[in-house]
Amino acid sequence: MPNSVLQKIEQTFLKIGDLFYQKKFFGFANFDFMIDNHENIFLIECNPRISAATAHLLKYPQLISNLPVGQLFIESFLEQKEYLLIKKHFPCPHDPFAGSVLNLCVFAEEKKKVTVKNRYSNGYYFPEGNQLNFSSFDIRKMGQKEKELVFFSQAKIGQTYKETSTVAYTLSNYPLFDQKGEINEDGKQVLETFKY
């Protein structure tokens, strides 16, 4: 990503951070945003909570200026919240990380239920050739290979859904989408591996 884009991202979120600070906002906030070909930033939404992508920040703290996100999250429940008189700005990290979050869904047609037919082990996987291999239930092992992902689902065989629903989540350290936001070949491999 060009430095000019990173600078715009940093300026945008410094302004948002200042606004949140003025409003005495405490806690986590995740933003979805897009950048067009002219380097314009478009904010899509703000989720004032931890999100699926937060796991990336826990595993790869360099993505958030090496802040101890997990510790801050736990402390937010344990300690009385105080309005800090001195605000701190942390720079936008310039990291080449290109991981992805991919939600896996079942698609229910009108008035038809979808029944889960398969179950997969939750845990740590890595691609090898044209397949994803299960490595371990211990997701703390992630970080050993160039390409790897964590898979999580609570869907059970025989479970039914009356509407389109997310049944599983994957968190990878490599891109599952192309520059246009379309599923790339690695993303298609994930979809082929985990079919419900």
Outline the fold blueprint:
Blueprint: H1 3-22, E1 30-35, E2 41-47, H2 54-59, H3 69-78, E3 100-106, E4 114-115, E5 123-128, E6 131-136, E7 149-153, E8 160-161, E9 165-172, H4 185-193
Antiparallel strand pairs: 1-2, 3-9, 4-8, 5-6, 5-7, 7-9
* End-to-end separation: 36 Å
Structural class: alpha+beta
SSE run: HEEHHEEEEEEEH
Q: Which spans of ≥5 residues are poorly predicted at pLDDT below 50?
A: none
Number of structural units classed as domains: 2
Rg from Cα: 19 Å
Question: Can you describe this structure?
Answer:
The structure is a single chain. The protein is an alpha+beta fold and 196 residues long. The protein folds into two domains: 3-78, no CATH class; 100-193, no CATH class. The protein has four helices and nine strands. The chain has helices spanning 3-22, 54-59, 69-78, 185-193, and strands at 30-35, 41-47, 100-106, 114-115, 123-128, 131-136, 149-153, 160-161, 165-172. The strands form three sheets. The protein has a five-stranded antiparallel beta sheet, with helices on one face. β1 (30-35) and β2 (41-47) form a beta hairpin.
Name the descriptors.
single chain, 2 domains, five-stranded antiparallel β-sheet, two-stranded antiparallel sheet, globular
Short recap of the structure:
It is built from four helices and nine strands, in the order H-E-E-H-H-E-E-E-E-E-E-E-H. It is of the alpha+beta class.
